[in-house]
Amino acid sequence: MSQNPPNLRPDLAPHPRFDEARREGQPTIGMVSLGCPKALVDSERILTRLRAEGYAISPDYTGADAVIVNTCGFLDTAKAESLEAIGEALTENGKVIVTGCLGAEPEFITGVHPKVLAVTGPQQYEQVLDAVHGAVPPAPDPFIDLLPATGVKLTPRHYSYLKISEGCNHACKFCIIPDMRGKLVSRPAHAVLREAEKLLEAGVRELLVISQDTSAYGLDRKHDLSPWKGGEVRAHITDLAREMGRMAREAEAWVRLHYVYPYPHVRDLIPVMAETGAGGGVLPYLDIPFQHAHPDVLKRMARPAASAKTLDEIAAWRAACPEIVLRSTFIVGYPGETEAEFQYLLDWMDEAQLDRVGCFQYENVNGARSNALPDHVPAEVKQDRWERFMEKAQTISEAKLAAKVGSLQQVIVDEVDAEGATCRTRADAPEIDGNLFIDEDFEGLQPGDMLTVEVEDASEYDLWGRRI
Q1: Cβ distance 185 to 165 under 8 Å?
Q2: Where is the composition biased (Basic and acidic residues) (predicted)?
């Protein structure tokens, strides 16, 4: 199974991302972007720099003078997918430059694909540009090559990822992100807000705020102050969210927060979310990577969380903002996980009643400290626990969605075809959550439109509705 949703890959996506005409003699670069949305933002930055230098961007291999493959290297399955994409690009095009997380292991890549032109690691933008210059020299025409105000985007025009920091200060035993991407480095608050402003001015209807640890934003800057709109704004996630929410309400757009650790100060975000009305703002949606619930498993993971306190926090969030939606991901089969610890997780799920849930079976990651833990769980036990966990999550999701039948929901349109419109409610992030489908009276709808629908039917993960 692909680790990266096909419609997040610019070479496979149905969205018309690159529709500009190529001038005669203009060098052209293709891009395959794998991995998480944070990597997608890195791809956008690379392509924006190249576009500014006069390169055209190709949506496929055959129309490109060279291809950049931005890889993922977190899990063995992701590494395999990256190697497969590199091989495909070599076969289809021949000139391939590799970057991204797997690029931190250049010998691993060149051992399988010795014909790649260059290998660079994550966030090494200058090295990528140097490699492109060597393979395909630039030929800019400053009178013709105009860069969009928002830069090059690989997402549909109506939503955009907004990265607020790089790296992570945690030392979770199963994760090597700090080794690949370094410690937390937060962007200045005014730089983040200026990018958000430009995206909203360009017509983006949903800002997806991402980082490795969104709630830690600004800790490395000691919450310094940045000049903004005649005043100052603190480098802190609450202050940042409040200001982005204000801009989004004015633009009638959404702000969605991802990768938020459940620190105590996260409760200060809830009143900001509660202010969000039909016109927009910071959505009452928290994407929190709980990973597990049993305190002993969390301790073995070296996770900064405690399950009992987390349940108290969830109750407090819901009391302050009853419409809040909680999404999370979990790992089953972590080394040493007993049947009792797994059952504790299932019981915790019954209490937490999370709205959206993903689950992964534990995999060893080269360089991760969890590899050396004793009592690794057999593959067949991991598979069994994954199936039981997903059955529990599906039951909860099905009940929650059934309760929405008859309700009115604000939705954003993602795609429209001959059969209907694919939309999302405020409870659904693109690519990872469910959809709401409209199969009647959808003529005239366009991606990015926002409208109110009445929910008429529900399944385990999706809704169906009609326009009001």
Answers
A1: yes
A2: 12-25
CB within 8 A of 465, min separation 6: which ones? 409, 411, 436, 437, 438, 453, 454, 455, 456, 457
Whether 423 has a binding-site annotation, put simply, is no
The CATH number of the structural domain formed by 6-135 is 3.40.50.12160
Confirm or reject CATH 3.80.30.20 for domain 163-402, answering yes or no. Answer: yes
d(CA 296, CA 447): 46
Q: What is the pLDDT of residues 24-66, one digit of tens each?
A: 788 999 999 998 888 889 999 898 888 888 898 887 777 799 9
**Which residues, including other chains, have CB under 8 Å from residue 403's CB and lie 6 or more apart?**
none
CA quadruple 395, 399, 405, 411: dihedral positive or negative? Answer: negative
Where in the chain do CATH 3.40.50.12160 domains reside? 6-135
Q: Give the tens place of pLDDT for each residue, 273-283.
A: 998 877 789 99
DSSP assignment of 144-158 equals: T-PPPTT---SS-TT
* Alpha-carbon span 327 to 397, nearest angstrom: 11
Compute and round to an integer the Cα radius of gyration of the chain: 22
171 contact partners, CB below 8 Å, separation of at least 6 = 178, 302
Per-residue buried b or exposed e for 365-391, using 16+ beta carbons within 10 Å of the residue's own CB? beebebeebeebbeeebbeebbebbbe
Q: Is residue 286 within a helix (H) or strand (E), and if so which, with residue range?
A: strand 281-287
Residue 359 marked ligand-binding: no
Find where tokens 């407090």 sit.
316
Is the four-CA dihedral 397, 402, 408, 412 of positive or negative sign? positive
CA distance 357 to 396: 10
Query: What is the C-alpha to C-alpha distance for residues 45 and 39, in angstroms, rounded to an integer?
Result: 10
pTM here is 0.83
Calculate the CA 216 to chain-centre distance. Answer: 17
CB 345 within 8 A of CB 386: no
CATH fold of 408-467? OB fold (Dihydrolipoamide Acetyltransferase, E2P) (2.40.50)
Residue 129 has pLDDT above 80, yes or no: yes
3-class DSSP assignment, residue 232: strand
Residues of the chain with CATH 3.80.30.20: 163-402
